[in-house]
Amino acid sequence: MELIHVSVAVSLDGFINDNSPERLILSSQEDLEDMYACRAECDAILVGAETIRSDNPSLLFKQPYLVERRRRKGLSPELIKVTLTNSGILDPKSKFFTAGDSAKIVLCRPGNVELLQQHLGTLAELIPLNTIEPTAVLSALQERGVQRLFIEGGRSVLTQFISAGLFHLLRVAVAPLFVGDSRSPRLVADGKFLNGKKHRLRLIQARALGDTTVMEFANDHVPSF
User: What is the CATH number of the domain that holds 77?
Assistant: First the structure.
């Protein structure tokens, strides 16, 4: 795969959300515009099923100029939407499935195919995998022509890909606020990370976008898959 781009926004104390019912807004408008521009360079976008259930994102571009830019490059107007699920619980009325005309892909365990077919019908292509691990996910997407993948979360997905070192670029937007609640989800869960003290990431640039600080890191130690 040519590019695996992970993007996330965090608080100063490393949380991606708080413990309230409403979604915590971390990104500035300037950061969002830049993030969308990065997203527009990719073929597909991946989020976990829990993100679909909790945030109900459309994953569509809100800027017509980005859609037009993609058309001029001969790309589809919108990204292929990809999710992965262990439980097989997905709402066919969620924006992931109902918003936009781009292809939708659901990676799941073989035992959940029948359940998902009953709920989703023809809304998405179902890809059964014996293990929903990053290497299997990436291989399945490559077989379907995805060469540039944008990954946005949630924490389970971020932990899997980041801990395995299976990304080329990591974009971290830091909001100038603290959450201060250990019950809230952090950027990643506990795990063994390839990019530990022996394989540090390389800072490409750091910028102030509105009141948000955006850092971009390159991973020089991406394992083969």
Answer: 3.40.430.10
Residue 225 domain-assigned?
A: no
pLDDT at 225 over 90: no
Torsion angle defined by CA atoms of residues 174, 180, 184 and 185, in that order, rounded to the nearest 10 degrees: 30
Task: Name residue 50's amino acid.
Answer: E
Rounded to whole angstroms, what are the CA distances from 122 to 28, 86, 103, 133, 178? 37, 20, 11, 25, 43
Closest CA to 87 of 119, 125, 44, 122: 119
Model-level pTM? 0.96
- Residues of the domain holding 83: 3-218
Closest CA to 212 of 10, 5, 2: 10
118-170 confidence digits (pLDDT tens): 999 999 999 999 999 999 999 999 999 999 999 999 999 999 999 999 999 99
Residue 223 covered by a domain: no
Is residue 105 in a domain? yes
* pLDDT band with cut points at 50, 70 and 90 for residue 112: very high
Q: How many domains does the chain have?
A: 1
Query: What span, in angstroms and rounded, lies between the C-alpha atoms of 169 and 218?
Result: 5
